[in-house]
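ugh ok fine here u go
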Amino acid sequence: MQYRLLGRSGLAVSELCLGTMTFGNTTSEADSIAMIHSFMEQGGNFLDTANVYVQGRSEEVVGKAIKDRRSEVVLASKARFMTGDHPNSGGVSRKHIMDAIDASLRRLNTDYIDLYQVHVWDHATPIEETLRALDDLVTSGKARYIGCSNFFAWQLMKSLAVSDRDRYVRFISIQPQYSLVSREMDREMLSLCQEENVGIIPWAPLGGGFLTGRYNRDVPTSGRLTAKQGESSWTLRASDNNFNVLEVVKQTAMELDRTPAQVALKWLLQREGITSPIFGASTLEQFDENMGAIGWQMPKEAWNRLDEVSALPSEYPNRFIAKFARPF
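structure:
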């Protein structure tokens, strides 16, 4: 396992992050704890959860798994979505942030969270209020660093500017959807993060399972891609372009004697600007397969082939800048 600094910080995280969204639900508590322990034994130190995963059950399971090895773990959690039926049980107002982190700390059985993240932008709350509250969490020691997730590029840049202006702590990372079949980050967010030294920890690096090679063009009857809506819906994933990408992934996997999932994760691991992809696993077998993405190097020509087939179409202003905006 290799380690990378997370954004503009001295925090070292493993090149893979273990996502725990299914822990305590489709992944049993026993298997969840076994995965976390195996991940740590193989050098992994970065765990991601959220207060809404399995209605808080994920945090409880993670807390049980790390209770005797807390200092070894970089623990990330999030807040933003509704956790109750009263009007202040969601969002990132000062009230909800303070309430939410205390509830997460109780479930996790710890007195601090290493990386506390805003799960998605809140249009109802001024970003100044949110960042001041997060700054106070860091000052108090309840959080060590802060990050965000599912932001537009302008929302991240505005947040960084407010932090710099008001001398609040900065977001050191962003958690976006990013994979060979979801490269919207390439338009603006990736270059912004590289310019501002913000770590990128992508979720759904396997496209909700699409890139595992377990699906063909027939509508699936089981698995995450049976969802009727959302990012893992079959309607969203089953495009001709995505199947073209999948064919190249499977061909590359065959050439390299790897699985499609390992190839898709390795493309991200070797992508400039990516810090630590977040992978999930419902079973111990899936966990072992995904861990097979580390410890080897994809040949440059194979990486380039994947990059080319999955690239976004030429778009303005990128094509204009590439053609005319030469330095001299």
